[in-house]
């Protein structure tokens, strides 16, 4: 039953490729669903959030394809919950799993999708728009099914192996992983910050840090203040644009 649920979660996550960018494949979503399926929602949410912090700054740039976060989030969370381990072990598992998932993903891209692409080219020469559309849909369908099967089979075969492996790992290694757990989220956030930090955003970032550090406002409170600040800035920008348009109209 658990294997079936993990398989359905994998299908749901990979449906991102059908539905567009909905972020349902992110580790924080997948981890929560895995925790719910395995009877430990709280641990699933905690582990999913920890893995999300690592991968939140990872993005595909040009030909550089990032690790496969869906497989890493699902299997990392599932193996950690099944073995009774914490977030540090989940992170140690998620990174290599995501890398292996990327290899499987590239194999599909290199071996299967070119066949469908050439078939679509022939349909294009014939002026068969329906055939081209079907090749696009089939390409996505094959990818979703293939990756979901890989995740499902890996969970079915790997949970016992992971439990046995963790039982042999010395405590000093587990302690080292705990330290790495505290560092990796900082790396992930730093990668994200490099993409979004601008002169306009930096003051708000340090303002939030100061509020958290000195006024002891919880994260939820800072998030609410951030949303309010974003709405104020957006409204002011829109008002300035509208005023500029009105002034230009008056000149004519």
TrEMBL record:
Xref: PROSITE patterns: PTS_EIIC_TYPE_4
Keyword tags: Cell membrane, Membrane, Phosphotransferase system, Sugar transport, Transmembrane, Transmembrane helix, Transport
Pfam family, one: EII-Sor
Entry annotated with the keyword NAD: no
InterPro entries xrefs: GatZ_KbaZ_carbometab (IPR050303), PTS_IIC_man (IPR004700)
One biological process term in Gene Ontology: phosphoenolpyruvate-dependent sugar phosphotransferase system
Superkingdom to which the source organism belongs: Bacteria
Transmembrane segments: 6-24, 45-65, 85-112, 137-157, 172-192, 204-233
GO cellular component: plasma membrane
Major localization class: membrane
Localization terms from the record: Cell membrane
Membrane topology annotation: Multi-pass membrane protein
UniProt feature coiled coil, ranges: none
Entry keyword Transport: yes
Protein name: PTS system, mannose-specific IIC component
Species: Clostridium intestinale DSM 6191
Organism classification: Bacteria, Bacillati, Bacillota, Clostridia, Eubacteriales
């Amino acid at each position: 039953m658990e294997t079936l649920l993990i398989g359905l979660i994998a299908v749901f996550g990979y449906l991102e490729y059908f539905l567009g960018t909905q972020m349902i494949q992110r580790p924080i979503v997948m981890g929560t669903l895995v925790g719910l399926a395995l009877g430990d929602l709280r641990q699933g949410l905690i582990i999913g959030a920890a893995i999300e912090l690592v991968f939140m700054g990872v993005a595909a740039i040009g030909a550089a394809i990032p690790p496969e976060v869906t497989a890493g989030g699902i299997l990392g969370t599932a193996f950690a919950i099944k073995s009774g381990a914490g977030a540090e072990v989940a992170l140690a598992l998620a990174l290599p799993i995501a890398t292996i998932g990327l290899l499987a993903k590239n194999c599909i891209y290199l071996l299967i999708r070119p066949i469908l692409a050439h078939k679509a080219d022939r349909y294009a020469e014939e002026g068969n728009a329906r055939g081209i559309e079907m090749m696009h849909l089939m390409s996505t369908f094959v990818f979703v099914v293939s990756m979901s099967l890989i995740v499902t089979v890996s969970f079915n075969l790997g949970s016992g192996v992971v439990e046995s492996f963790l039982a042999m790992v010395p405590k000093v290694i587990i302690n080292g992983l705990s330290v790495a757990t505290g560092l990796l989220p900082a790396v992930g956030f730093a990668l994200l910050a490099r993409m979004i930090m601008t002169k306009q955003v930096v003051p708000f970032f340090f303002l939030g840090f100061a509020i958290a550090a000195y006024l002891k406002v919880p994260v939820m409170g800072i998030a609410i203040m951030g949303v309010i600040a974003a709405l104020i800035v957006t409204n002011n920008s829109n008002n300035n644009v509208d005023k500029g348009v009105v002034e230009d109209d008056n000149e004519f």
